[in-house]
Amino acid sequence: MAKFSEQLQSFCDLALRLAELHDVDAVLFVFERPTDWKQLQKAVSKSNVVIAGDTEEVVAGAADEGFDTIVLNMPADAPTYERLTQALLEGVAEEFFPEGASVVAAYSGFEAGPIDSVSLIKLDEHLGRLTVRDLRQLKTKVPVETIKLVVDLAVEIGREGREGKPVGSLFVVGDHRKCMEFARPMGFDPVKGYTRQERRLTDAKVREGVKEIAQMDGAFVVAADGTVVASAQHLAAPNTPDLTLSKGLGARHWAAAQVTKATGAIAVAVSESNGTVRVFQDGEVKLRIEPFRRAMKWKSFDTDGPT
Ligand SMILES: Nc1ncnc2c1ncn2[C@@H]1O[C@H](COP(=O)(O)OP(=O)(O)OP(=O)(O)O)[C@@H](O)[C@H]1O
């Protein structure tokens, strides 16, 4: 049984005191190793506490004690700031924290392992709002779960790149038959020949495979149920005069605008130059997500504007 240390007890006390003083909405603990969840539940009593951990193993058992949990799945050497940001983002996405919440976070900020730091964070200042509600606003037949899967994947591609190099990418999601009418292979399609089961984005292994392929030229076509229909596709939907895109966005983003104008699909584009993810619908950018280290922000409308 993982130990509940005296240090952890004092940080619980400290976090709760700060939470009460500032009337915050939730307390977030970011753990690098498991603890005695029962003991923690006793220590925090009725407060709204969310537990984030690096892996499933770290948070195993926490949900049984009534905690909301988040698994970060980030590289082991990810900086504290990024881990904390990711935990906050996930917390907002899962709706564990209300919009514009203030949160007290307890985490290991100085040395790996024990919790040694407490921060008071106002979410609107730290990051914009990423909410499932934002995705729902897209008013599309594509299930929000599928869009969320693709957006999360796109954000990871934009943030991580591949082998240290930035990677751009394009996904079109939903209305895949119509999308395929505008698609032609740009070369070898690595997903061809695999069964549907082997192409489901709900499978973490498939998502890893997609990240590998993302560095190739062309777009992924994804069905509404999250199956990758084709990859490395050149998309050429007709241009319409009412389409506008901000300066600096090139062929990839135009393809996203055009295909979403011509079909009922949502497109998710990752820009190679800075990792920004844009969600297109009906020929327009509807959401923009900035990558880490550039004030991670979800915006519910396009601030680019036509030029
Ligand atoms: N019509 C298209 N369909 C699918 N993929 C495309 C299309 N046009 C361009 N791409 C992909 O986008 C890549 C980048 O093109 P370009 O630099 O013009 O796009 P961009 O919109 O400026 O994107 P980025 O910000 O990533 O540079 C191309 O190498 C290609 O892989």
UniProtKB/TrEMBL annotation:
<keyword id="KW-0547">Nucleotide-binding</keyword>
<dbReference type="Pfam" id="PF21755">
    <property type="entry name" value="DacZ_P"/>
</dbReference>
<dbReference type="GO" id="GO:0004016">
    <property type="term" value="F:adenylate cyclase activity"/>
</dbReference>
<keyword id="KW-0808">Transferase</keyword>
<feature type="domain" description="DAC">
    <location>
        <begin position="132"/>
        <end position="291"/>
    </location>
</feature>
<dbReference type="GO" id="GO:0005524">
    <property type="term" value="F:ATP binding"/>
</dbReference>
<dbReference type="GO" id="GO:0106408">
    <property type="term" value="F:diadenylate cyclase activity"/>
</dbReference>
<dbReference type="InterPro" id="IPR014499">
    <property type="entry name" value="DAC_DacZ"/>
</dbReference>
<protein>
    <submittedName>
        <fullName>DNA integrity scanning protein DisA</fullName>
        <ecNumber>2.7.7.85</ecNumber>
    </submittedName>
</protein>
<dbReference type="InterPro" id="IPR050338">
    <property type="entry name" value="DisA"/>
</dbReference>
<dbReference type="InterPro" id="IPR048544">
    <property type="entry name" value="DacZ_P"/>
</dbReference>
<keyword id="KW-0067">ATP-binding</keyword>
<keyword id="KW-0548">Nucleotidyltransferase</keyword>
<dbReference type="InterPro" id="IPR036888">
    <property type="entry name" value="DNA_integrity_DisA_N_sf"/>
</dbReference>
<dbReference type="InterPro" id="IPR003390">
    <property type="entry name" value="DNA_integrity_scan_DisA_N"/>
</dbReference>
<dbReference type="Pfam" id="PF02457">
    <property type="entry name" value="DAC"/>
</dbReference>
